[in-house]
Amino acid sequence: MNKSSVVLSVFLLLSANGVRAESAAEIVEVYKSPYCGCCTKWIAHLQQAGFTVRAHDVADVAQERQKLGMPGRFAACHSARVGNYAIEGHVPAADIRRLLQEQPQATGLAVPSMPPGSPGMEGAYAVPYETLLVQGDGSYRIFARH
């Protein structure tokens, strides 16, 4: 049996047993302060939506944001990478799923600041907010309204 046959056999066996391979598009790498509670709540929101999250406590979230290519004017309290996209702030999991499905040419999604009522910022009141699709040149368009 050659290597390809073994890999295919293992994949078919796992699939038949309800186990699926983890795709890179479903792994979210999060860069956050170790002291931020709302970041932890946003991570839980993503996990509940079926994403695998790898959280990294960092001293300088702004530096990580810059590495991901997200302009600082869209800053929030945490930055993330999923697939080929940067995710900034309290972006709803449904918006990330849509992004991965549509695969637009873009840097990623951002919910600037920390709007009350966004995932991880739930509380007594909520305000309307928008998820922005950020382009490589720093421009953006509204991706979703919440």
Can you characterise this structure?
The chain is α/β, with parallel strands linked by helices and 146 residues long. A seven-stranded mixed sheet has the order 2-1-3-4-5-6-7, sandwiched between helices. A hairpin with a 5-residue loop joins strand 6 and strand 7. The longest helix is centred in the N-terminal third of the chain and has 14 residues, at 3-16. The protein is globular. It has one domain: Glutaredoxin, CATH 3.40.30. The chain has helices at residues 3-16, 37-48, 61-68, 93-102, and strands spanning 27-32, 52-57, 79-82, 85-89, 108-111, 130-134, 140-145. Residues 2-21 have low confidence and may be disordered. The protein is built from four helices and seven strands, in the order αβαβαββαβββ.
Task: Provide a quick synopsis of the model.
By secondary structure, the chain is of the alpha/beta class. The protein is 30% helix and 25% strand.
The percent range for helix content is: 25-40%
- Number of helices in the DSSP assignment: 4
Average pLDDT, rounded to a whole number, is 88
Head-to-tail CA distance between termini:
53 Å
Any guess at the CATH architecture? Answer: 3-Layer(aba) Sandwich
Q: Largest sheet, described in full?
A: 7 strands, mixed
Beta-strand share of residues: 15-25%
Number of domains: 1
CATH topology value: Glutaredoxin
Low-confidence blocks of residues? 2-21
Q: How many runs of DSSP E, i.e. beta strands?
A: 7
Spell the H/E element sequence: HEHEHEEHEEE
Radius of gyration: 17 Å
How do the helices and strands line up, and which of them pair or pack?
Blueprint: H1 3-16, E1 27-32, H2 37-48, E2 52-57, H3 61-68, E3 79-82, E4 85-89, H4 93-102, E5 108-111, E6 130-134, E7 140-145
Parallel strand pairs: 1-2, 4-5
Antiparallel strand pairs: 1-3, 3-4, 5-6, 6-7
